[in-house]
Design a protein that fits this description.
The chain is of the alpha/beta class. The chain has eleven helices and nine strands. Helix content is 37%, strand content 17%. Strands 5-4-3-6 form a four-stranded parallel beta sheet, sandwiched between helices. Strands 7-8-9 form a three-stranded parallel beta sheet, covered by helices on one side. The protein has a two-stranded antiparallel ribbon with strand order 1-2. It is globular.
């Protein structure tokens, strides 16, 4: 049970905005620090390493919330493997690898672009491997097919998992539709709604990649009777994600997208 706290709860705090002194409602990055790690080192009674602390931080925010529906009831050491897919700069891949490290479970990441297999790992992929994730680099055309073919994704993921695992939990890119409920539960609980009201918040802003976090926030605001609060998403890619097509309440700001996820320009 203790190991699952990181995936069921997020801590928040208010900090003053430097320019005006107005309070800003933010998620803390250390919400998972109280969760027990199930890696071999911690199980042996050693002090948590920097890697373990990094893993806890990785699942303390929205990525941990998106993972929570796939981990409920499975917070024991020795559970089945976890597998997901994403691009080379996917924070969701990183968080899935971190979750596997904390729970002592094998993880597999299907990465877009087989041309990356022989190249130096970027910080995101290097972190995934440090947490023990096996990276499988998939040709871009096949990756697009797997996005649209759930049975094919399940077969591809199962084939990449070690034979010693009887079960594998396959998680869609970015968490998929099930992750929306995880965001609702984690960030739109009664106490957070009360905090939003007490601070007289009129706008909630979040970055948008897959769109599932923004969709969860919008659904949570609706469910919590806070329809007056605007939900604004700042897009990391130019095209609006499919997850937001059913959530017109999310206002998308796309002027800062630079042509691809993780890309930037001098401006």
């Amino acid at each position: 049970m203790a190991a699952r706290l990181a995936f069921r709860r997020a801590l928040v705090e208010t900090v003053p905005l430097a320019s005006t002194g107005e309070p800003v409602f933010v998620l803390r990055t250390d919400a998972a620090t109280a969760a027990r790690c199930h890696c071999a080192q911690c199980a042996a009674g050693a002090r948590a390493s920097a890697l373990c602390r990094s893993a806890k931080a990785a699942v303390a925010g929205n990525k941990g919330a998106k993972l929570s529906p796939f981990l409920r009831g499975d917070g024991h050491e020795g559970g089945g493997a976890l597998a997901t897919m994403g691009g080379a700069f996917s924070n969701f891949l990183f968080a899935t690898a971190a979750a596997g490290h904390l729970l002592g479970r094998q993880t597999v990441g299907l990465v877009r672009g087989d041309e990356l297999a022989g190249k130096v790992r970027n910080p995101v992929l290097a972190g995934c491997e440090a947490f023990g994730m096996r990276l499988v680099f998939v040709p871009r055309h096949e990756f697009r097919q797997l996005r649209a073919d759930w049975p094919a994704l399940q077969r591809r993921a199962a084939a990449a998992v070690s034979a010693r695992h009887d079960t594998v939990t396959v998680i869609p890119e970015g968490g998929g539709g099930r992750s929306i409920g995880g965001v609702e539960d984690a960030f739109m609980g009664p106490w957070i709604r009360e905090a939003l009201r007490s601070l007289d918040v009129d706008t909630v802003i979040c970055p948008v990649g897959s769109g599932f976090t923004a969709a969860g926030l919008a659904s949570g605001l609706q469910r919590g009777g806070m329809q007056h609060v605007r939900a604004v998403g700042v897009a990391a890619v130019a095209a609006p994600p499919a997850a937001l097509r059913q959530h017109p309440r999310v206002e998308i700001v796309s002027e800062f997208a630079e042509g691809g996820f993780g890309r930037s320009s001098p401006r």
